[in-house]
Structure prediction request, 152 residues.
Amino acid sequence: MKNIIRDLGTEDKSQWLPLWHGYLTFYKTALTDEQTDLTWNRLLDPEFNLYAKVIEQDGKLVGLTHFSFQTSTWAMKNYCYLQDLFVSPEQRGQGLGRALIDCVKEIAIKEGSSRLYWNTDRTNETARKLYDTYTSESGKVQYRVRLNPDAD
Prediction:
């Protein structure tokens, strides 16, 4: 099997959607079709600070990652935030998640980022085994204040 990591393209929507929905299902969340369409359009907008890489295996998309760059008062240039990472359950255990993280890491280095970071649930033990090979967890606790009851 040949794996190709590449930019998300306009022709990928029908294959991206099941991966996106699989990701949302894993995190026990649902978004409106309107939000999914907005996310899709942002990922393809070269002027918007949201990027996507997909991994293709024998012509079929089997994984995705979405990331953005964040300015920081602690960094000369930026941090890179890996927001979403998902590999189809049938393809897990082949190093595809690692390949996607490494791809984003390379991009972040080229962009001059001083940090690559991401969040996951404490209970996501399988993924944390992979993440722990990169670094120890940060020890930070995230707080969320809902500003609009109808939005996440």
Q: What stands out?
A: The first helix runs from residue 13 to 26.
